[in-house]
Amino acid sequence: MALVPIEGRIDTAGFERVSVQVFRNSSLYRQYSLPLSYSPTGSAPVALTTTIPAELAQYRVRIFLHSGVAGITDSLLIADRQRIVAGDAYVISGQSNATAYNAPPYYTYQSEYIRTFGVYTGFGEYNPADTLWAAGNGSSATLIGTWGMEMARRLTEQYRIPICIINGAAGGAPIQVLSARTDDDPMDLATNYGRLLYRVHKAGLTGRIKAYFYRQGENETSGWASGWMMNFDYLFNNVRRDYPNLRRFYLFQIHVLAGFAEATPGFRDYQRRLQSLQPLIRSHATVGTKAYDGIHFGVEGHQETGLEVFRLVARDFYGSTDTVQIISPDIKKAYYTSPARNELVMQFDEGQQLRWPGDTTVSDPYGDSVTHQLRQWLFLNKKAGAVVSGRVDGYRVILTLNGSRSEQDLGYLPPNYPTQDATQPTLPGFASAFPGPFLKNERGVRAFSFWNVPIGAPLPPLLSLAAKSETDGSVKLTWADHPTEQAYVLERRTSQEQAFSRLAALPLNATLYTDSTAQNQTSYQYRLRAVTTAAEALADVSIAVNCQPGGQLASLQSGDWYRARLWSCGMLPSPTAITQIMPRHVVTLHQHAWTKSIRLSGTLRLQPGGILRMGQ
Question: What's the predicted TM-score (pTM) here?
């Protein structure tokens, strides 16, 4: 819902009351009548508030004055405000890939329910009188940008609410221009930062911007790359100050560009790591986005970004359940797997299912074929050539190396491509834009590029992992305590599942776990991880669960006694079974049942007709 204030004053005497009509589309929605009370100075204040819901509907407010003269019943229409909507507001800032301008007829979508405020100026001067609402992307003056518009389109269609986006990006702007803020006048129209903040303020959206999108850094790839981090921190802290109640700051990690600045991969890596340093930030990788020309993206690429950002916003603000593999895979640690140091693991977020890509073949500007392999873009101590091949195991990428290695840090994707000024002709043997291949997850979301990630030393092996099927259908797992672990993670998958999923996180020095959720007639593979901050040691074991009649059964949840899924093994209690109702479980019985014995750690609730017989 939105509060709509109706305020003003009547300076002309002789009126008795004011009335207000609120229409939803063309139908009367609400109406109000308010008596007027004139002050000694001859004016009568008007103040009331109505509400409208956030929905795809147009609202209209009409305000009338009514005479206090006897016999005069006519009313005077003094205000008529139309096309009022309630919805959510977002801000975009950055440089050209944030403006994301694709002129018609390439991207022409518009909607009455996707709006912007004021005039887009980029670097231009701003007229403070430009304070009108308009449909977004109607012209260069009402720019939202292609990916911003595509995100908003999906939000309005999926969640049926209007969206406002105010875009203050400026093509080619370095971060020091975008972050410049006049401390004693934050809305200084001489600054890009101030012009954007002014539009937000005049729109009445101070404290109501849900998220701030920042996409910038291309300007620094052949410039002052080392200064990006300092300027970003200054910008971010000011955004938090000037946009109260901001709930999310979305940051884009830029693509690989031509250039020669050695610091470029460092600030790209900082763009990746910021989400782990600042809870407000969520980062997103743009490497491998479609229709890339070496600096900018075509309509197809911006539409892909709009879809991917929509998923993040839908998850963060609208309760979307489409949350599996929608984030860019982010490396969490890298480590050698054995003392031989001829194998290396890149470990990403749990839940990611990565894919090792095939070769990418493109033509250089002179018509000759250029073929790249992913292993070319993996750097040990900033040098390529050590990786022979790779394979994927869920969220782990296992690299085979060309012998025993001693390097201490790992990088993915080159600092620049080609390593030359973007204004120079592309060298033979290089594509005009970096073509990959790229590491992606199953949904095609590309992994972040990274640089100088420390490589952990190999851990001692994890020994003696064993699994035993108990009579109640549970699986008992035991192992020898690892000498250096800081914690354990236990994972499980069935023979039909491709990926492991986390079963339990276990503390330091644990050596035992009982899986009471195992199902009858099912084969499982368990994987135990001995975890440190720098590396991991793994062991796995397989077992088939085959419950025998007359064994021990335990409740897995609350519910009806005669639901087989309620019990371990998926079997109903029998006259030869030992049955246990687990703590906090409530099992109801409304007919005749028979079991050898029962242990009530939880509750057995007998309904009318419920009879439990025990013993053989």
Answer: 0.88
Strands, DSSP E only, in 294-441?
333-336, 343-347, 354-355, 360-363, 369-372, 378-380, 387-393, 396-401, 409-412, 440-441
Average pLDDT, stretch 466-485?
A: 90
Contact between 556 and 565 (Cβ < 8 Å): yes
Q: How is residue 489 written in tokens?
A: 């993670």
Instruction: Look up tokens 């139309």; give the residue.
Output: 82
At 549, the pLDDT band (50, 70, 90 cuts) reads: low
Angle at 124 between CA 119 and CA 130, to 5 degrees: 30
Query: How many Cα atoms sit within 13 Å of 497 on the Cβ side?
Result: 14
Provide the token pair at 596: 């050898």
Measured in whole angstroms, how far is the alpha carbon of residue 21 from the centre of its chain? Answer: 42
Q: What is the pLDDT of residue 262?
A: 82
The chain-wide mean pLDDT, for the chain, equals 93
Mapped onto helix, strand or coil, the DSSP state of residue 81 is: strand
Whole-number Cα distances in Å, 431 to 25, 361, 426? 54, 10, 7
Contacts of 342 (CB under 8 A, 6+ apart): 400, 401, 403, 404, 405
The Cα–Cα gap between 453 and 104 comes to 43
CA distance 210 to 241: 14
Whole-angstrom distance, CA of residue 236 vs CA of residue 527 = 41
Average pLDDT of the residues in 486-503: 92
For residue 35, give every residue at least 6 positions away whose Cβ sits within 8 Å of its Cβ, in sequence order, or none: 16, 17
* Distance set, CA 38 to CA 79, 205, 226, 245, 615 (Å): 20, 33, 65, 39, 90
